[in-house]
Design goal:
- By secondary structure, the chain is α/β, with parallel strands linked by helices.
- It has 2 domains: 5-242 and 443-467, Aldehyde Dehydrogenase, Chain A, domain 1 (3-Layer(aba) Sandwich), CATH 3.40.605; 247-433, Aldehyde Dehydrogenase, Chain A, domain 2, CATH 3.40.309.
- Helices cover 39% and strands 20% of the residues.
- The chain contains 15 helices and 20 strands.
- The chain has helices at residues 39-58, 60-76, 78-89, 93-112, 147-160, 175-184, 202-207, 221-232, 256-268, 285-301, 320-335, 367-370, 386-394, 409-416, 451-456; strands at 5-7, 10-12, 20-23, 30-34, 118-122, 126-134, 137-141, 164-168, 193-195, 214-218, 237-241, 247-250, 280-284, 339-342, 357-360, 377-383, 401-405, 423-426, 445-446, 459-467.
- The strands form 5 sheets. Strands 14-15-16-13-12-17-18 form a 7-stranded mixed beta sheet, sandwiched between helices. Strands 9-8-7-10-11-19 form a 6-stranded mixed beta sheet, sandwiched between helices. A 3-stranded antiparallel beta sheet has the order 5-6-20, with no helix packed on it.
- β17 (401-405), α14 and β18 (423-426) form a beta-alpha-beta unit.
- α2 runs antiparallel to α4 (93-112), α3 (78-89) runs antiparallel to α6 and α4 (93-112) runs parallel beside α5.
- The radius of gyration is 23 Å and the shape is globular.
- It starts with a strand and ends with a strand.
- The protein binds nicotinamide-adenine-dinucleotide.
- Nicotinamide-adenine-dinucleotide (NAD) is lined by residues 141-145, 168, 170-171, 200, 203-204, 207, 218-220, 223, 226-227, 241-244, 275, 372, 374, 400, 440, 445.
- Nicotinamide-adenine-dinucleotide (NAD) binds next to α7 and α8.
């Protein structure tokens, strides 16, 4: 399939022989081609966005109605868009469709919410108002693990607040986003939404572009740092949703037969390629063996396979590079004396498959514990004292999310209170909702997405003073 980019209201196809190939991770075969755009086209997109921005900012009614119409398209084309997400990411059919549905839900919330306007002073002499104004042109740069949801988060907030947008999906997963752009090309005014594709060189050109006022990024810490440096020259506004190394703490009173399956899902959903997945599991000694047994049982019940394979429950890694990262971290764990309870080697089949892997017996300094694996290999660590578990959970440069598992939610909340992370749950882990801000502390990011906090990140604060006479 050949997809087109959306630039200044026009759909642009790749010139023959110049397209960027897109792979199906469950087979390794090329399934699509998208334009490999150069900097000249990016400049054209940014200029179109800059021209369209004042009119868009002034059109308050369209800023709501257009988002609602895009949400309608996402819902009416959920099967088609979901199938594209599955084809390019390798996630299950349900997971692909859910992306379209969740993206629509997010846009509707953004369309309905009111931006706050405060009156700071109102006396005999003057009125002082506080307003939230658009920044201008936003450059949004996306990762490969949840293409449609990420696109909706950034497009919803940017467009609702009166900005215009140049959005770049990951070169690994551009298909569903480009198809959505094609479907809404006649709904969104020309220049307001531009979707560009190309190799990684487009990213720095966007984040250093003089006409871009804000960069909204989701991806790795390494790229986040590079963006901050590049954006510094013109002091661009930034939101950075970066990596994590989420800890979950299972207290001694948790019932392994109840929490085991939930812990497995929270660590291995989308084959571990979720920023908020459990990436280190600390378990009280009293229930340690039983929790490990439940995890191994769930892992061994998983059936590897692509989104269209009958009976498959566990998809591939989306990229060959991520498969290599996971394999390397597990080999390092093995070399340090870690016990591989299940899994432990890439699957012997086409595609980027790695089975769910549970590793015990590691020190916290092992790379599989200390680094972000972003894949299906979970270190399970034992603790004797809750204070010690909290300290070990917090001993990281990351701070995205964390959780506590217990049969006593009140005690769980006391432990949760001590965890340094942007989102903390008791008896649950992960989940993004339109009205709840999420994002990371420390090196997991800057700023928040979703909720009013996330929306206001796309605005500048302005005060206006008006004399009484
Ligand atoms: P990545 O940083 O390699 O790439 C992300 C995007 O940045 C891609 O579109 C890429 O083309 C672009 N890019 C690459 N180099 C760039 C540069 N120098 N300047 C600007 N853009 C550049 O990340 P990835 O491998 O696609 O995604 C996986 C990572 O994303 C993981 O670390 C994961 O934790 C993180 N992630 C975070 C969240 C969150 O919300 N916190 C959500 C999903 C994924």
């Amino acid at each position: 399939m050949k997809m087109r980019a959306l630039v200044a209201g026009e759909l642009l196809a790749a010139a023959p022989g110049t397209g960027l190939p897109v792979e199906d991770p469950s087979t390794g075969l090329v399934i699509g081609e998208v334009p490999d755009l150069g900097i000249d086209v990016l400049d054209h997109a940014v200029a179109a966005a800059a021209r369209a921005q004042p009119g868009w900012a002034a059109d308050h009614a369209s800023r709501r109605s257009v988002l609602r119409r895009v949400a309608d398209v996402l819902e009416s084309h959920a099967e088609e868009l979901g199938a594209l997400v599955c084809a390019e990411t390798g996630k299950s059919a349900l997971g692909g469709r859910m992306e379209a549905v969740k993206a629509a839900e997010h846009l509707r919330w953004m369309a309905d919410v009111d931006l706050p306007h405060e009156q700071l002073v109102d006396d005999d002499t003057r009125t002082v108002l506080l307003e939230h104004r658009p920044i201008g042109v936003v450059a949004a740069i996306l990762p490969w693990n949840a293409p449609l949801i990420m696109a909706a988060h950034k497009a919803g907030a940017a467009l609702r607040t009166g900005n215009t947008l140049v959005l770049k999906p990951s070169p690994h997963t551009p298909l569903a986003t480009l198809r959505l752009a094609e479907l809404v090309a006649d709904i969104v005014p020309a220049g307001v939404l531009n979707v560009v594709t190309g190799r990684d060189h487009l990213g720095p050109a966007m984040t250093g572009h003089p006409q871009v006022g804000m960069v909204a990024f989701t991806g790795s810490v390494r790229t986040g740092r590079a963006i901050m440096v590049n954006a510094a020259a013109s002091l661009k506004r930034l939101t950075l949703e970066l990596g994590g190394n989420d800890a979950a703490i299972v207290l001694a009173d948790a019932d392994p037969s109840v929490v085991g399956a939930q812990l497995f899902r929270s660590a291995f959903m989308n084959s571990g390629q979720v920023c908020q997945a459990i990436k280190r599991l600390y378990v009280a000694r009293e229930v340690y063996d039983a929790v490990v047994a439940e995890l191994v049982k769930a892992a061994e019940a998983a059936r590897l396979g692509g989104p269209t394979e009958d009976g498959a429950t566990f998809g591939p890694l989306t990229t060959a590079e991520q498969l290599a990262v996971v394999a390397e971290l597990v080999e390092d764990a093995r070399a340090r004396g870690g016990q591989i309870r299940t899994g432990g080697a890439p699957a012997d089949r086409a595609g980027h498959f790695y089975p769910p892997t549970v590793v015990t017996g590691l020190e916290d300094t092992a790379r599989l514990v200390a680094e972000e694996q972003f894949g299906p290999a979970l270190p399970v660590l034992v603790f004797d004292d809750v204070a010690e578990a909290v300290e070990r959970a917090n001993s990281t440069e990351f701070g995205l999310s964390a959780s506590v598992w217990t049969s006593d939610p009140v005690h769980g909340a006391e432990v949760a209170e001590q965890l340094v992370a942007g989102s903390v749950w008791v008896n649950r882990h992960a989940g993004v909702e339109p009205h709840i801000p999420f994002g990371g502390m420390r090196q997991s990011g800057i700023g928040r997405e979703s909720g009013l906090t996330g929306l206001l990140a796309y605005t500048e604060t302005r005060t206006i003073e008006i004399p009484r006479s």
